[in-house]
Amino acid sequence: MKTALIPEFEQERLKALSEYRILGTRPEQSYDDITHMASLVCETPIALLSLVDSERQWFKSKVGIEAEETPRDWSFCAHAIHTDQPLIVTDALRDERFVDNPLVCGDPKIRFYAGFPLNNDAEHRIGTLCVIDRKPSQLSGNQMQIMKALSRQVVSFLDLRKRSINLLESFCSESQPSGIISTCSYCRKAKDERGDWVHLDQYLAKRSTLNFSHGICDSCIEEHFPEVLEAWQAERRESGQDVQKPAQVISD
Asked: Which residues are bridge partners to 248 per DSSP?
């Protein structure tokens, strides 16, 4: 068995992987949907979202196997992360890198492997989205394009996860030692670092990349704009339509 070489910028790659804080987490529907789609599109019994850690490959999502992880030295994916191009092994028994690999000689008896690297925006390849079969095979052009798109979608989910974690941590350490945003219990405004009371959306907009639109909820329509609600309901009755609460949305 030919063990994959360690990538040149391995420490930077491992740091990028750790920033997602995803190793060891529970299954999530968004990732499971992608591996199921990969299995269906490529007509393979096995599909994996594999993350290559320092000593192991760990499966965030899997179809067709029970294992949670395997040693990195056995990993096809450890070979796949050396370039940004897919690694296609049509028949592992005819490839000197894998012919005596434990995953080929034993379960899951890999013969066909197609791994699509997960490239983040810094060109660190943290793992792969891969499909596996127990018989020699290959992918069509359309299947290749779909797998590339699905691997990009995985990275988008991971980046969103990282941004969400970073945003939450920045809020918890921004201005209150205890990690609390001080808000008015009546009007729900937030107190900024200067002690000024501002609307919560303004507070968040200054401290994040979030964008906001504004509307009026049903209860506020009833309390503050009863005449608008009455006029709307009268108009609905005259037109013979059901009278329900309006969904009032006012865009910025």
From this structure: 216
Mean pLDDT score across all residues of the chain: 87
Structure tokens at 26: 């529970």
Q: Which residue has the tokens 């529970």?
A: 26
Q: Which residue has the higher pLDDT, 138 or 237?
A: 138
Q: Which residue has the tokens 């005819």?
A: 94
Q: Tell me the pTM.
A: 0.69
The arithmetic mean of pLDDT across residues 98-123, rounded, is: 95
d(CA 183, CA 161): 26
Give CA separation, 172 vs 22, 135, 167, 207, 220, in Å: 20, 52, 9, 12, 30
State residue 246's pLDDT score. 53
Residue 101: φ, ψ to 5°: -65, 135
Return the percentage of the chain with pLDDT > 70, whole number.
86
In angstroms, the CA 92 to CA 94 distance is: 5
The model's pLDDT over 162-202, given as tens digits with 9 standing for 90+, comes to: 988 888 777 666 544 455 677 776 577 888 777 888 887 78
| Contact predicate 48/35, CB 8 Å | yes
Nearest-angstrom CA–CA distance, 168 and 157? 17
Residues 206 and 198: their CA atoms lie apart, in Å, by 11
Structure tokens of 193? 């670092």
Asked if residues 49 and 136 have their Cβ atoms less than 8 Å apart, the reply is no
Q: What whole-number distance in Å separates Cα of residue 19 and Cα of residue 155?
A: 13
